[in-house]
Amino acid sequence: MKNLIRKSVEVLDGYIPGEQPQGDDVVKLNTNENPWLCSVEVHDILREIDVSVLAKYPDPVCTEVRKVIAEKHGVGIGNVFAGNGSDEVLALCIRAFVERDDGSVGSFDPSYSLYPVLAEIEDVEMRLVALDENFGWQMLDGFEASVFFLTNPNAPTSLLFPKETIEVFVKDFKGVVVIDEAYVDFASEDCMELATKYDNVLVARTLSKAYALAGIRFGYCVGNKELIDALYKIKDSYNVNTLTQELARVALLDQGTMEAMVKAVKNSRKLMAEELTTLGFEVCSSETNFLWVKPPKPGAKKIFDELKKRNVFVRWFDGERTKEYLRITVGTNDQTMALVEALEEILAK
Fold first, then answer.
1. pLDDT tens digits for 213-241?
2. Which of 160, 175, 259, 278 could form a disulfide with 287 if both were Cys (CB 3.0 to 4.6 A apart)?
3. Is 182 in contact with 204 (CB distance < 8 Å)?
4. Radius of gyration (C-alpha) of the chain in whole angstroms
5. Given its phi and psi angles, is residue 212 left (phi above 0), alpha (psi -120 to 50 degrees) or beta?
6. Where on the phi/psi map is residue 299: left (φ > 0), alpha (ψ -120 to 50), or beta?
7. How many angstroms separate the CA atoms of 339 and 313, rounded?
8. CATH architecture of 40-253
């Protein structure tokens, strides 16, 4: 059977998503979901949907939701690509902009662990650039790649790279820079203006975090029309379903609810950071809806395992740069205190 599978796929270590435990007693702080309810406009659409529309194919180019996105960012509809989650946008960027024989994909290390997997799937070279010892910006002189994926704020480190630093990089970089702003609604600044200022920049966004809509799988990117057109050439025929298009449209129109949720996340983030610092954790400055923390003894892996036994789920990454840290999603205040209570029990042993 293995002879039927492409070699690069056969040896591939696939992306490992966070666990999705079920149950009322679970404290789920491992996948950076938003714990608050999405826009009531979304609730209304779900109640009013005419199921007969599901017999028809969706709009293949997501016209109505792209109009809303274009207006939000002050661009033309031709500068917007809509995708089945921002992960589809990332995958299509490799297929569209990286030659298989001599192309390459770049990103920082550590960063979003999906990037190397996407490069392996397409059988192209992955070039990692190590962040400095404090996970700050550190770019190699003369670094080249066909595409550079730049998560900002970065995951899993929660830190924001300065826009001025990114712009200097973009100006000299010969390939396409995809600025992955999945968490930017929780940050103090964004880089969307670079997508209209430079022909080689795409800025990607998602509704999974700040809009509390991870389940509908909607993402988009903004940038040069030639780059956007290339993505449309190679996407699946009907890549975003009818319900998702409409739910995304109404959610994006309701900026007030999104902003209220962001404010709530920031307040809870402050509480969680204070509580963990009191417990002896080193807490990195966060501009996301999660914290990147270095626990005291008995260490990250042991604490991760002990929390799991208590139905408290956080994220641990087994890598040279990441194994001493935990990534903890900002939940409600009640979830934070449940986490703290479990940690106090673990650390007291």
1. 999 999 999 999 999 999 999 999 999 99
2. 160
3. yes
4. 20
5. left
6. left
7. 9
8. 3-Layer(aba) Sandwich (3.40)
